[in-house]
Fold:
Amino acid sequence: MFSHQDRDRDRKEDGGGDGTEMKSKSRSQPSGLNRVKNLSRKLSAKSRKERKDRDSTDNSSKMSSPGGETSTKQQQELKAQIKIGHYILKETLGVGTFGKVKVGIHETTQYKVAVKILNRQKIKSLDVVGKIRREIQNLSLFRHPHIIRLYQVISTPSDIFMIMEHVSGGELFDYIVKHGRLKTAEARRFFQQIISGVDYCHRHMVVHRDLKPENLLLDEQNNVKIADFGLSNIMTDGDFLRTSCGSPNYAAPEVISGKLYAGPEVDVWSCGVILYALLCGTLPFDDEHVPSLFRKIKSGVFPTPDFLERPIVNLLHHMLCVDPMKRATIKDVIAHEWFQKDLPNYLFPPINESEASIVDIEAVREVTEFQRYHVAEEEVTSALLGDDPHHHLSIAYNLIVDNKRIADETAKLSIEEFYQVTPNKGPGPVHRHPERIAASVSSKITPTLDNTEASGANRNKRAKWHLGIRSQSRPEDIMFEVFRAMKQLDMEWKVLNPYHVIVRRKPDAPAADPPKMSLQLYQVDQRSYLLDFKSLADEESGSASASSSRHASMSMPQKPAGIRGTRTSSMPQAMSMEASIEKMEVHDFSDMSCDVTPPPSPGGAKLSQTMQFFEICAALIGTLAR
Amino acid sequence: MGNNQSGGPDARYGGPNDKAGLRRHRMMSETAKIAGQVLPNPDGGPPMIFDDGNEDKSGECPVVFRWSFTQNAQPRVVHIVGSWDNWQTRIPMVKSTNDFSTIIDLQPGQYEYKFQVDGSWVVDDNQGKAQDVHGNENNMINIQDSDFAVFEALDEDFQSSTAGEVLRGESESTKNHDTPNDRELEKLRSFTQEIPSMDMLRKAAGPPVIPPQLMQVLLNKETPESCDPNVLPEPNHVMLNHMYALSIKDSVMVLSSTQRYRKKFVTTLLYKPV
Structure:
């Protein structure tokens, strides 16, 4: 354990680039613990007194007596402090681009937090309102031992206060600068914690996109806390991300090239750069000249010092692979032999798949206890049984269940350390990690995307599926023909950009809400283009306003025919159309409800959303072919 | 060094081992509780509070008041008095780098207030002002309900920001660097049947290069003989909802798409004569 200078400092707000970061630090004065405690206790007592006085003053419309007034004024004179919610604001930890970060003390528990104060006018003029909203959305429900916690967000007319976990150990960046390259065991411990946090984010469909040592904080025990989710985004089904964000040294090649990416693969690249920095004390791709830096990143060639062991070099090359399709996935990293060594159990709690279909009654009750969701337990249960896994109540429920597993493992760890029943592990027999067992079992049941083996005979027989439709005309001519065909079919559209259009049939009545689809023209090579058709799910009406931003960003699965509410627990069989045959392939028959064929709803079965999507595609393809 | 996650309690109680043990024990007891448990707190932090700032007082929300000063004219002491309590209490403000500030919990509505700077009554010219019935000038503030709901406040700010204007297509010349999802962009546009001009199509930047993930077609994967032939590989999330097709053969068009269904995925095929 390296001893380092104990600085009481939280991370600085990062404006998305190194150049825009203001480095202004504030260090708390060293003082006796008892004196600090006494002072806090006095302040707390005064705070309670102040509230009592204010309440009595507010309740009374009478003018207080001169003596009483003087007494009140004298008491007021003594209490110059700022309180937001239940927290008393203390010294400033730092000043970022968007506002200050101050220490906050919970008035009853004396617990210390970091309060990030964002001036609304400033974030508006700097054009980062969306960034702040995404950070709050993505971080507020997260509970992981290695992700900084956002306890509360308080909005006022002029400022927004984010009550966050206070971490006193400084940045991992400063730690590396101070210590140089770390020993393998210490680097591995940090890396395991980072990967555990990133895996948690990805499981909940959030990609961080700004992973770097400056955004990794250290607590008193030198554990990592992932911070700054301002560049994070929610991953939705069928959608790609394109924003070129993050710091250049840690950004993946496809990000700096402005290409589309899915999400997790760019976080894997950043983690690879961080792993290299931990082990070598330098960056794999570094150059003062930005164009030269970009060339190095796109080449994927980086120095490998002699002191790096062979397994680590293999892992680094797999993570820092330029081709995102060949790059290591988070699963690959977790399964790697070097990563598995000395891996604590709490970082990857086993997923009990047999319990996936059992509703946790306690978790349902906890969802109802959120003040934001004023719902009954029945509503939560029906949301879980409904066909929309992205319902905001389902999201909250799954987060609580996941958080419980992590908390259970962490509690076990605390118990172990408290009783010191098991000293540090020796080189005992290596037990297979549950993730590995699950992976090996699933590989026997389910083939993987990487399986490229094929027999020649089968290949000759089978026709090949292809995405959308292709053309070798010029892109503007293709889109013009598409618009003309849509007008001919009496469709209407929204133009997001000339090559990305949202389409639907014109509704027969204002109340009708026909399904929508997205048309996007892609370039395949120099002379070939591809028109991609993608189904867009209906947004659920009447969702809670607090969750509307998050809800709108989610892609929803198809709703069963004839029933659009979330209370139904049955899925009627889609009606077969005349002259059309539907074949349904279910990936896993363990969910027997897919095979059940209940009678159609009394109101008359409609086409499923998927079938309606197919009909629109077929009509448009047919018209374009003519 | 063990991976001890109980950093908070240890830091608070410092050296004494018995206190640390007591704290850990209490935390474990709290973790074991069933009734009344809001959320487990592995790090022993404060309980999770999920509100938008509407605390114990009914309808009262925090409002920040500031008195700014320059380095060469720093007041020694600043107080604020206001109509929220009929001008009864002189509230001392806390000095910071560039200002004195305080936070007062108020109901939504309109209020007048004034500052006392080093003993002199002052009105801040940079904040809203109003005259009362006696002809005196005071600062004035109007508090809205939406100021205290975080996402409503952020949505309002977003609409009136440059990014919001750009996304609505109102000012296309301005460049903005806050790039949300296309789904957020879609909510700001309206359906039309107007065909864009060929000129507009030509001026636009070319279509994006197709991502390699989309060229991984689920139904083109060979399944090992040991697997159930109806079971397909697990798709990644970007492959979902897209339409794949076979070439038209024997006058039949075949389309397919994969959607998420609960914790599984479903691939649907349509055979349609043309």
